[in-house]
Amino acid sequence: MTKARMALLISVLVTGLLYVVPFGSWLAWPLILISTVAHESGHGLMANVVGGAFQSLKIHGDASGVARWSGEVGRFGQAAVSAGGLLGPAFTAAALFGTARTPKAAQWALGLLGLALVLLTVFFVRNLFGFVFVGLLAALALGIARFTRPETSQLALVFTAVQLSLSVFSRADYLFTPTAHTASGVMPSDVASIADALLLPYWVWGLACGGLSLLVLGIGLANFLRR
Q1: What is the mean pLDDT of residues 138-148?
Q2: Considering Cα of 198, then 201, then 202, then 204, what sign does the dihedral take?
Q3: Predicted TM-score (pTM) above 0.90
Q4: SS (H, E, C) the chain
Q5: Strands 53-59 and 185-188, how do they pair?
Q6: Strand partners, 65
Q7: pLDDT tens for residues 29-77?
Q8: Can you name the residues that pair with 125 across neighbouring β-strands?
Q9: Domain count, the chain
Q10: pLDDT reading at 227 higher than 80
Q11: Which residues contact 159 (CB under 8 A, 6 or more apart)?
Q12: Does the pLDDT value for residue 23 go beyond 90?
């Protein structure tokens, strides 16, 4: 068995244990927050792609979050920004799987991820909980990349990719609700925002985003497992 496949097997086994051991849900709580970071960052990055400006984001302890952006980007741009958050975890997981194929590449990728999280913390996170959580993630990623063996970086990347992949399923209910209940208040959900900008009911866009997420995950995992 290759090191990459061994890292995947260990990640899946550890993840499974978290849901059966006592207090495992408490241990899994930070892992759920990682998907929130990927989700809200996806909104911000897509805003920049379509010509807007990523302003700020907040990450809350209940695993909710809010990303703020500005700019006149048109209806399709608005829909793309909303979809960016929904697709963020799947695309991030696929990217992590792709860079974790070899230990050395994983070490470099984890270091770059840590630097990206530092920039996210300093320039965009605007609440105390989010600042502490994303800052700790950045420190952990940089510490593993700098002070441990490349195989440890590979395991860390694969483990994170597994958590993001699972969040596509565990948080799929958000794809089929018109409202989002966050610590910042009740607001239209991302699929409702897409429906407002374009045509068709919100649940159609939920199906579309869910299907695309599964496709991206499948491609990422297939690329990771190929010899």
Answers
A1: 97
A2: negative
A3: yes
A4: CCHHHHHHHHHHHHHHHHCCCCCHHHHHHHHHHHHHHHHHHHHHHHHHHCCCEEEEEEECCCCCEEEEEECCCHHHHHHHHHHHHHHHHHHHHHHHHHHCCCHHHHHHHHHHHHHHHHHHHHHCECCHHHHHHHHHHHHHHHHHHHHCCHHHHHHHHHHHHHHHHHHHHHCHHHHHCCEEEECCEEEECHHHHHHHHCCCCHHHHHHHHHHHHHHHHHHHHHHHHCC
A5: unpaired
A6: 59
A7: 999 999 999 999 999 999 999 999 999 999 999 999 999 999 999 999 9
A8: 57
A9: 1
A10: no
A11: 7, 10, 11, 14, 15
A12: no
* Better pLDDT: 194 or 1: 194
How far apart CA 129 and CA 113 sit, in angstroms, is 20
Q: Which amino acid is at 129?
A: F
**Cβ-proximal residues to 56 (8 Å cutoff; 6+ apart), any chain:** 67, 68, 124, 125, 126
Average pLDDT over residues 110-135: 97
The length of the chain, given as a count of residues: 227
Give the range of the structural domain holding residue 90, as residue numbers without chain letter: 3-225
Spatial contact of 163 and 35, defined as CB atoms under 8 Å apart:
yes
What amino acid occupies position 99?
T
Cα radius of gyration (the chain): 17
Q: In this predicted model, what pLDDT tens digit does every residue of 172-205 receive, in sequence order?
A: 999 999 999 888 888 999 999 999 999 899 999 9
Q: Contact, 224 vs 8, CB < 8 A? A: yes
Q: Tokens for 222?
A: 């297939």
Confidence tier at 9 by pLDDT (50, 70, 90): confident
